[in-house]
Amino acid sequence: MGRDNGRNDRRRQIAHLAARLMAEDGVEDYALAKRKAAREAGAQDTRELPTNDEIDEALRTYQQIYHQQEHRQRLRELRETALRAMREFSRFNPHLTGSVLSGNAGKYADINLQLFTDDAKAVELYLIDQGIPYSTRQSRLYAGSGSLSVPVYNVSDGGVEIEITVLSTRELRGPLRTSAGGKEIERAKPQAVEALLTES
User: Fold this and answer.
1) Based on the domain organization, do 81 and 21 belong to the same domain?
2) Is the same domain home to 84 and 43?
């Protein structure tokens, strides 16, 4: 019993350290935040690592305690920028994902969009036609029991990085995950983002 309590305390400590790294240092990757926080806490046992949900909860608490007003303002600005980008890419059925949707965006957060089209090349051609500077890479997502290698374009709007993942329309039919056993990626259409802005 005592050992379990100690492990839970350590998990909470690592979750709060990871939340601070995400809020203050702009770490967006949960696995990286966990590893850095575990090192800081001197934890060796991987069973002591918190889940992403536990870090999200710690991050919400951290933002409320230390940055409530600033966080609310920053989140609103990021969602407005996201909505502007979604309108720009409206022909590709854009959806917002990630920390700007969940409300946990730190001060250095990127905006994560998913575009759904059966002509992935059309997105790159659109960027070229519009004169929008971009960089590109491949990313891996998981759907069902398989994985997908998908193109990702990074663009910038007023100093805010926007990460655009391009998927086929069939991927709208089922959940997508960032890891094989991970949580389903939540996504929202422009109307839902408008509603979030209205609520705030």
Assistant:
1) no
2) no
